[in-house]
Amino acid sequence: MSYCSGEIIVCTLPRLNRLSPCHLGRGNICNQRLVKEQDMRDIDQLKESLEITSTAIEEEAQKIAETSGLLSDNLVKAVRIIWRQLVFIWVIMIVLLIAYVSILYKKPFDRAPSRPDQNTTNSHESISKDMAVSSSAFPSPAGPSESFLTLLNQIREAQQKKDIDLFLSAYSPDFPDIEKKREKTLTVWKAYDFLEIHFQMSDLQQKDALNFLGKVAWNIKAQHTNNKKIKISLQSYQVGFSKESGRWLIQNLKPLNENK
Question: What is the pLDDT of residue 240?
Fold first, then answer.
């Protein structure tokens, strides 16, 4: 009987206790087959490892590609958002600049006056009709208009300073009820602070060398000194100017209409 196991080859003959040379040759062949089988198994394991490694590398490469794509998309989105915000900010700045310029150069009477709020509407107190106000938007007709402008600016300054002597010095000593006007003016000054005062003059007519007539529209925005309510008053007057002792003064006032 003969057999081969591992790397040890033993050939047994009946009734003999020695190895046969013929069986040694077969043992070498068996050993070589075992070595080849082991090599094949190692090669198969190596191929399997290579396949596993290759698959892992491909998966990692795919993940890297996906991550790069996401980063690229996010970067593009971020750049777009930044540009949109910049454009929005520039648009807002341009709109504000245009609004500022339009307000800066727009005349007071080129736009309708703002409507008073509910508190103003419910207010029963009114600003005196006898008070004259001035504006920087004064027209420049021919004749003594510069003197009228100086006179009205004097009234404006007096109201801002609440200087009654300066205020009354713009009126003629023959102005009707000058003392009553003084009392009304002081009462109004005590009750109100002026926030905005504008005027517009029109229809200037010369009666004679010493007398002129003109229409003046007053736009007054004032705040009550106690309850802080806002009062807007639109008033129109026919104003009589007269020259006395070399100075132009207000001779009389005639209310034309009033819109509170």
Answer: 93
* Span 87-129, pLDDT tens digits: 889 889 898 888 877 777 654 444 444 444 444 444 444 454 4
CB atoms within 10 A of CB 251: 20
Q: What is the pLDDT of residues 42-73, one digit of tens each?
A: 888 888 888 888 888 888 888 888 887 788 77
DSSP 3-state of 257: strand
Write down the pLDDT at residue 25: 57
Q: Which fold has domain 125-259?
A: Nuclear Transport Factor 2; Chain: A, (3.10.450)
Q: What is the C-alpha separation between 178 and 195, in angstroms, rounded?
A: 26
User: pLDDT digits over 182-235, tens only?
Assistant: 999 999 999 998 888 887 878 888 999 899 998 888 788 889 999 999 999 888
| Distance from chain centroid for Cα 153 | 37
> Is residue 253 classed exposed, middle or buried when 0-12, 13-18 and 19+ CB atoms within 10 A define those classes?
buried
Residue 239 near residue 250 (C-beta atoms within 8 A): yes
Cα four-point dihedral sign 256, 145, 150, 211? negative
Residue 196: strand pairing partners: 221
